[in-house]
TrEMBL record:
Pfam families on file: ChuX_HutX (PF06228)
Protein name per Swiss-Prot or TrEMBL: Heme utilization cystosolic carrier protein HutX
Coiled-coil residue spans: none
CDD domains: ChuX_HutX-like
Cross-referenced Gene3D superfamilies: HemS/ChuS/ChuX like domains (3.40.1570.10)
Gene name in the database record: hutX
Amino acid sequence: MPSTDLKAYMADNPGAVIEDVARERKVAPRAVIEALPPAMMRIGGGEHFAAAMQDIAEWGEVTLIVHTDDAIFEFTGPIPAGEIGRGYFNLMQPKGLHGHLRHEHCAGIAFVERPFMGKSSAFVAFVNADGGIMFKVFVGRDEARALRADQLARFRQLADRIAAQPAA
């Protein structure tokens, strides 16, 4: 459980970069997510990895981010459908985003809605057993830079299906 100090910090700074706060506070990124105000996050089990990815594959253009200590990789486009085989969740397309994800390493799926850089944001974070973020998938934006309403609805429906309801 995150410390009250971290909870207070995240209540005052809900748009802080999760990985930066984790590094500064010497905690896992999952602890930072869990320290967000309850209305801003929900977490479901990692066993829902394939179902979540299949749902996200139907959302259209989103942004997938992989944030490491050395780089932040961003891909904007549709997430391809995938299937489990040979120990991986395989993204099944020859070009664009493709690859092999270690789905069994996923220990949690966080759904985060919070302000970020002066705008509303919503993302799904796939969290590993060490509390690190494998990658995040952000709800896309429309021409006016607002969150796409259709994707936000899908995001919330997916969260309702696989994540615990926020505490009151």
